[in-house]
Every structure is written in structure tokens, then in C-alpha cells.
Amino acid sequence: MRHPMIFALLASSVLGLAGCEDSKQASVARAIDSVKAIDQQNMADLMLAAGDPDEAVAYFAAQVENDPENIRNLRGLARSLVRAGRTSEAVPAWQNVINHPEATNDDRVMLADTFIRNNNWDRAEQALNAVPPTHETFDRYRLEAMVADANKQWARADHFYETAAGLTTRPSGVYNNWGFSKLTRGNPRDAERLFTQALQHDPDLFTAKNNLALARAGQGNYNLPIVRMTQQERAIMLYTMSIAAIRRGDATIGRTLLQEAIDTHPQHYEEAVRAMRALEGGGRG
Description:
The protein is mainly alpha-helical and 285 residues long. It is 76% helix and 0% strand. It is built from 14 helices and no strands.
């Protein structure tokens, strides 16, 4: 009489063990999937941050082919194309991101950035206009300033440059771009102030050093600014000032600065030598 009950208990135990086994296998499968997802994300981050740009493009292109609906793969491909300097290809890649249902306003800003890199200012402006005004980020205002500059809307550009500078802890690039904008408007004094601000935040930003030399030369001040510089940087800045001096009609000062640039450069300074030959040839003519 007890045998059926014993068999029933044994059967239920076997089923219970089978259920536990299935549960363990499911847990292991989920854990493996999680590790794979983390590894893929780490690989994607590594490719975008430190990988060879063209290798990153190839990697993300393969990921998109395998999983074309994954927006992270689409973003990775678009970003890697920009990083590789392949901006004409990056535009449609970012447009694919924008067309994805999970696209964000940051993606639209990146599309505008890519249009600017591709020298398509009208399309960049259209892309920024599609971003709601409540999306207040550093990248958005940095690009708004550049578009306003391109349209010669100076007051608007100044407003956006100032806003962008206040939204980042590293505003050196903004101040450098703002200063160059002032230079193009024929305001070297304000430009000098902005380049100086850029160097206060990043003393190694050479473009700001060179632009600062250009802004000083634009005011007839041919003394190099007191900033940290290598011997090669010093030679390039002297060359920049020499060209500015010659264009201002100060040919004698320009020739002196040019010779100093040639003497200062640690290697053969071909550009400066060619400029000197041209200057001497023009003088003899």
C-alpha cells in the first residue's frame, strides 16, 4: 500500500531536481549573455577611445551588419567614421542614427557637427534647428556659435560662445575659436584677450599660442607673447608674425622675424626659407 506513495514522492523529487537543473542552466545562460554584452560594450568603448580609426570603422561596420537595429552599433560606426576623417561617409551614418526610434537630441547635435566638418553649413543649421531649445548642452552651443559665425551674426555668435564656455570645465577650445572669430572681424585686441584666456586653461594649446602671436602682430606688436613654448613652436610663431608684418607693409620687420624663425627652428624650416627667397626675389625686382 505504501509503494504508490513512495513512487509519487520519488517522481516529484526527480521533477523538482529537473526543474532546479533547468533553472541553473537558465541562470548560467543569462550570466554568459551578460558577460558577452559587457565585453561587447568594453570593446566598443575601446575602439572609440583608443583603437585605430579605420579598424574601428571596420569593427562597427561588422557589428551593424550583424545587428543593424542596435543603435549603439549605428552610433559607433558614425563616430568612428568622423574620427577617421571620413566625414562624407559619416553624414549618412549619422542620418541612420537619427532615423532610429531610440535616437536622442545628442545624436542630432552630432549630425550637425558632422555637417560642419563636411563644410555643409546650411544643413548643419537645419539639424540644430531640429533640436529643441530645452536641450542646453556644451556641444549644442559650441556648434550654434560656429554656425552664427558662418552667418556673420556676431552678437549671436558671442552669446553662444560665452554660453558654451560656461558649460565646460575645459573651455580652451571655445576661447580659441571665439578669438579667431574676433580676428576675422578685424578686432585683434579682443582676440588677444580670448587667446590668452584659452592658454590660461590649457597652456599647451599651440593653436592658441600661434593665434595669440597673430593677434599681437595685427596690432603692430611684434614681440612674442610670454607663454611656455618649445623651440619649434617659437620658430613657427615668429614665422606667423613675420607673414603678418609683411602683409601690414612692415617688410623690414617681417624680414628680420623671418630670419629669426629660420635660425630658431631646430630643423630645416622649408616654409620660412621659401618665404625668405620670395621676399628677397621681390626686393631685387
